[in-house]
Amino acid sequence: MANPTHPRKANDERASEPKKPPFQPIDCKTSPPVIHLPNELWLTILQAPCTFPPSIFAKVMLNLIQNPNITSSHLFRADIFYDSGEHPDRRLSSTDLARHLKAEYRPIASEPPQGFELTRTIVRQLVPRNAQLDKALVQTCHFFQRAVGDVEESVVLYIPHVRSPGDVPFYHPEVAKLAFYHCWREIPESTRLESDESLPDSGSNESLPGSVSVSYNLFDGTTMTTKLDRTALRLIQTIHKHGQGQLAGYEKRVHLDQIIPQKRYQDTYATLKAKYGKQLSDQWVEVTDPGKHVFEDIGIAAFLIELWRDMYAPPTQSSPPPQLEEQNDEQQQDGNDTKPPFPGFVDIGCGNGILVHILLMENYPGWGFDARKRKTWSIFPETVQKNLHQRILIPSLFNQTPTLNTETYHNGIFPPGTFIISNHADELTPWTPLLAYMNQSAFIAIPCCSHDLSGARFRAPAMTKVAKAALKAQRNHVLDESFSRGVVGGEEKKKNGQLGLKQASETTWKQTSETTSENPTKTGTLSKPQKPIVISAYATLCSYVSSLATAVGFEPEEEVLRIPSTRNKSIVGRRRVQAPQQKDGDSIDEEGEDVLGLVQRLVEAELERDIEGIGRDWIARAEKLAKKPGSGH
């Protein structure tokens, strides 16, 4: 007979982690302040109980200092001018390092609260989204700590570099200083368990180990306002949420700015937005929302310009921009010998043409085409309109002539090296890395809807069939080796025992391969197994495009773009193991294999059909698509 499990024993592994308290802030404006600084009057606005320790509070505050956009949608980012945390000897930081900064960027000193020690100082500049509306603000951030007995106290002090309320920008609370206070007292485990059990019903927070509060130092002659109350609530709520999330083991799943640094991208985006945002929105002739399409394409243009800045020499300043197909191969490097000249771009499935327009106006030569002409094309200058064409793409691999006029289709062969863009190009998305391989080009693909290589709608798998077959072969090889070692090692096993070992190995390998190939490893407590992650169709589509790129020798990079779209993941192919070469007029890859032959075998393997049948289906769908009216994209 099994022994009954005591409910408290069932939670032994989680006993050291207090239950998450509800967010119940307390108005403290009529209570004595928790911040005491010499010759300063402070007002504590709100306080909330918490169960995260000082280490997590410091981590959360550092993240909020580095990413102020978390608490204000009016902000882009923070530029860090000074951080004493990077230097172990803080005494040197204030004398030898800070004095080299401009006066306006030097940290503003502050006496620590009584008994506290200064542990870190950061000077940041808050960068607004709209520099024409709001100005940047420099701010000093001090970290203080104190430990008395079993109580640990932490204070993070913000000092804006302003002299009067009129100098404070809209996105910052109109106060002289603000401070965040965290108090932590270790509670015996037995007391903590009793508190956890009573928390859901009674809501009592008296036995919780921690609390966090926000306080203001008001300007002389000013009083509290409703806006200041709302701001305090927003700030303390964010700290509480992030702190409790960190305690529960939260890990960020989406990582931005992996290819292009945030500052470079946002600065370029702000410049392009100021130049083209209002103009394009005012001229919008489609029925769709310009607020989405215009600023989405401005964001993509900013990313591409910064990506190309890393890859190529600056483009030649020429006006009007030349048509790519008429470019001379002897294009000059614009005085830059360390990087190749910009090879031009082609936007396949260019839609409304905004991206092509912006890139051309920024002196990047290129062109775009789409199966359907858009009304938006008519609002662009003549030099841009000449580089927008209504065509359907019939890959040369199909080697078939469609029934449409030859001027209305393109075979997908571009000048070697042409940078290929597919932005929500749907049917052309899986073909993007293959076209880049065939043209010895780099590419970017921003997937949207899932289509296979014949143009049919389908749910893309996480990897190509070729890659899946290779994984299966590798799995069988490992299993065979493991099984052989068991037999050769002289272990005496019964037949059923050997079979059980192999089945267990297969199960383990299957679980491992599925986790690594489709589901990212997810951490969590052993006492509470988490449900398996359901991978979205969009996530598997992006993985599939990356797998196709890998199949033709690219080293794909993925970047989540800062654009107003849920379909915001890009796959960039700018590096190959070895680029294809020319031999006897034919293009061959690094293995000496015919490029078109390799692509054909890959396409046939994916669809399990011959290339002729695939080509017929592609052409039929393309011709049907060309007859549909154009949309806003």
Automatic annotation (TrEMBL):
Top class in the EC scheme: transferase
Where are stretches of biased composition, namely Basic and acidic residues?
Answer: 9-20
Q: What are the record's GO terms for cellular component?
A: cytoplasm
What InterPro entries does UniProt report for this protein, alphabetically? tRNA_uracil_MeTrfase
Q: List the catalytic activities from the record.
A: uridine(44) in tRNA(Ser) + S-adenosyl-L-methionine = 2'-O-methyluridine(44) in tRNA(Ser) + S-adenosyl-L-homocysteine + H(+)
Q: Which UniProt keywords apply?
A: Cytoplasm, Methyltransferase, S-adenosyl-L-methionine, Transferase, tRNA processing
Q: Where in the cell is it found?
A: Cytoplasm
Question: Does the record carry Cytoplasm as a key word?
Answer: yes
| Keyword field contains tRNA processing | yes
| One of the protein's GO biological processes | tRNA methylation
The residue ranges flagged as biased composition, category Polar residues, are 504-528
Could you say which EC number(s) this protein's record lists?
A: 2.1.1.211
Do you know which Pfam families this protein is assigned to? AdoMet_MTase
The region called Disordered is annotated at 1-27, 315-342, 489-528, 572-591
Recorded GO molecular functions are: tRNA(Ser) (uridine(44)-2'-O-)-methyltransferase activity
Q: What is its main location?
A: cytoplasm
Q: Which PANTHER family match?
A: TRNA (URACIL-O(2)-)-METHYLTRANSFERASE-RELATED
**Function (record text):** Adenosyl-L-methionine (AdoMet)-dependent tRNA (uracil-O(2)-)-methyltransferase.
- Give the family this protein belongs to, as stated in its UniProt record: Belongs to the TRM44 family.
Query: What name appears for this protein in its UniProt entry?
Result: tRNA (uracil-O(2)-)-methyltransferase
Specify the taxonomic lineage: Eukaryota, Fungi, Dikarya, Ascomycota, Pezizomycotina
